[in-house]
Amino acid sequence: MLGWLAVAAVLAAATAGLLWARRHLLRVAVVGRSMEPTLRSGDRVLARRVPLARVRPGDVVVVVAPARMTAGRPTSPDAVDNPGLLIKRAYAVPGDPVPVDRVPLLRQGGERNVPAGRLVVLGDNPPQSYDSRECGYIPESDVLGVVIRPRLRTD
User: Fold this and answer.
1) How confident is the model over 66-103, as pLDDT tens digits?
2) Above 90 in pLDDT, residue 104?
3) Beta carbons of 89 and 124 less than 8 angstroms apart
4) Tens digits of per-residue pLDDT, 25-51?
5) Per-position DSSP letters for 108-139, written without gaps between them
6) In what order do the strands lie in the sheet with 60-64?
7) pLDDT value at position 109?
8) Model pTM?
């Protein structure tokens, strides 16, 4: 009898752990060259789901790709291989000066500081990156999390 209780307790703990991980963590595959040399295509990263208020400049973040970039492809965080997600570096967060020197597109808005609920992201490999230079601010609702652990390829 005691053995079955122990098995049930282990299964319950494992289920609770999986549910917690599913709610708080996100595994994303890197596609493309926009984050080289930090991350390469085929790498996988683990991101912690956090609100925009916990994102800091320099953090590597996972965001929902802008609609005009995905053109009908799924944008769900649970889509196969995450085709509707981008992995970029947070460059400026709400309250930071608008980086018009790096992101001239933002000059059109006329703000001196990044507005509340908005994020500026850039890829580490600018010539290969679709980021705030083309799409402007990323809205808070599209910020999914901060990368906490890359799992780099070993080839």
Assistant:
1) 876 655 444 444 444 445 899 999 999 999 999 999 99
2) yes
3) yes
4) 898 889 899 999 999 998 999 999 999
5) GG--SBPPTTEEEEE-SSGGG--SHHHH-PEE
6) 25-29, 44-49, 143-151, 60-64, 85-92, 118-122, 138-139
7) 83
8) 0.79
How far apart CA 63 and CA 138 sit, in angstroms, is: 8
Instruction: Return the C-alpha torsion angle 13, 47, 45, 124, nearest 10.
Output: -170
Identity of the amino acid at 149? R
- SS3 state of residue 85: strand
Query: Of 153, 154, 144, nearest to 49 (Cα)?
Result: 144
Rounded CA gap, 110 and 148, in Å? 34
Rounded to the nearest 5 percent, the helix, strand and coil shares of the chain are 30, 25, 45
How large is the average pLDDT for residues 133-146? 94
Give the pair of three-digit tokens for residue 12. 């319950």
What is the average pLDDT value for the chain, to the nearest integer?
Answer: 83
